[in-house]
Amino acid sequence: MTEITQQNQHNSNTADLVDKAKQYLVPNYAQQPIVLDKGDGIQVVDVDGNNYVDFASGIAVTSLGHNHPALKAALIEASENIWHVSNVYYQSASIELAEQLAKLFDYPVQAFFCNSGGEANEAAIKVARRYHWLRAGSPAGAAKQHEIVSFRGGFHGRTLTTVTATAQPKYHEGFHPMPSGFVYADYNDCSQQNLDIITECTAAVILEGIQGEGGVRAANPEFIAAVQRKCQQTGALLIFDEIQTGICRTGQWFSYQHFTDVVPDIITTAKALGGGMPIGAMLAKPEVAEALSVGSHGSTFGGNPIACSVATAVIKTMHDINACEKVAVIEQIVKDRLTAINSKLDIFSEVRGMGAMIGAELKPAYAGKASEIVKIAAQRQLLVLVAGPDVLRLQFPLIISVEDLSAGLDLLEKVLENFVQAN
Ligand SMILES: Cc1ncc(COP(=O)(O)O)c(C=O)c1O
Fold first, then answer.
1. Strand 36-40, strand 348-354: pairing
2. Domain locations in the chain as residue ranges
3. Is the Cβ atom of 117 under 6 angstroms away from ligand 1?
4. Are 96 and 77 spatial neighbours (Cβ–Cβ below 8 Å)?
5. CA 114, 116, 119, 124: dihedral to nearest 10 degrees?
6. Which helix (H) or strand (E) holds 306?
């Protein structure tokens, strides 16, 4: 692994900056006391010049690593053209990105661009409700078919609407009253009772192909098929939230493509789409998309030409490096290695996930201690994540070489040995 050489350019160190952060930033994040300053490939460097191997990818954002030459070139070129175009005019970057995204589907879709995953889901929920409202003849107030069904353990964002769709009470604390018309069901439960929560009142069902924040839990194919069938019976739209799973992370462009004959009406994506630039997209079948008629929805920054140009470069680069094939190799190496580590340390009750999105659930003896592993890893200059209190989450950069992956996993093994010794 080539080390990035780094000089501290800010005449400041971690402790000073962390003190300042505590004074000036809203304290809503549990932040590691690390101030990252530079990135290159699979490594990042802090302001004190320490290198870290990045197995977190900014929570599934920097899938092409840091400072990728193709993305940097696109960013520089776009910055020399135009930085902002209000959506009262067209601009080529968002049109090009919409076309490239549409080519990833084998059925027509149209794109609405925004700046984050939460906003993409907000747009998806709005278009679903409006689609049914128009079909019901635009009644005063809500249409009968207005409910949004989501699944326990899912995560869909932090806006008031998307956090309501996030069926985890801990995210609702202190924010009541929540918007109405949201109903929850159990993930991966194909029982009639559970599926009957989807009714003629359901505007849309939103789900993740793998629940990321909810513990890296993949959907069962039978569950997805049953949900799609129920949507078809009731006329509810099917929304796949591909914000974390999209853009090759699971070994397909979108996780729904792992399931046979699944045709979502709406797909939302963000995170890796921009390779680090803030962008989100809501992609809908044209007959659904048309419900967002002129004036019904919008975003000042949505479709920003610089973000769209970089996102187009992300898609092109994913094609160029055959990202989905690389991901299959990563998945095999990682799962084999974690299984071998587990035979030695007896630490995980399950290793799961798809592609380069892997979760390792700790045995009950280590319950609640996943964040301890994250801290030990950071001390040993490896960045990893949790998904809840008991699951270690790894989001590998898709550009990683087999050699660097093995070296990073060696480091992880040492971290896990330290953790077991300390417990
Ligand atoms: C599946 C899923 N949906 C939505 C979001 C919200 O995205 P953002 O933080 O960009 O608003 C996330 C973020 O983690 C996510 O994982």
1. unpaired
2. 14-67+323-422, 70-320
3. yes
4. no
5. 80
6. helix 305-320
pTM exceeds 0.85: yes
Quick check: CB of 157 below 6 Å from ligand 1? yes
pLDDT digits (tens, 9 = 90+) for 196-247: 999 999 999 999 999 999 999 999 999 999 999 999 999 999 999 999 999 9
Contact by Cβ (8 Å): 203, 148? yes
Q: Is the CB of 303 under 6 A from ligand 1?
A: no
pLDDT in tens, 24-33: 999 999 999 9
For the CA of 116, the closest atom of ligand 1 is 10
Residue 209 in contact with ligand 1 by CB distance below 6 A: no
CATH no. of 70-320:
3.40.640.10
270 lines ligand 1 (CB under 6 A): yes
Quote the CA–CA distance of 76 and 168 in Å, as a whole number.
Answer: 41
| Tokens 């326990």 sit on residue | 152
Q: How far is the CA of 354 from the centre of ligand 1 (A)?
A: 18
Task: Check if 398 has its Cβ closer than 6 Å to any atom of ligand 1.
Answer: no
CB 46 within 8 A of CB 52: yes
Query: 14-67+323-422 has which CATH code?
Result: 3.90.1150.10
| Predicted pLDDT of residue 235 | 98
Q: How far apart are CA 230 and CA 61, in angstroms?
A: 33
Residue nearest to atom 3 of ligand 1 (CA): 156
CA 120 to chain CA mean position, Å: 12
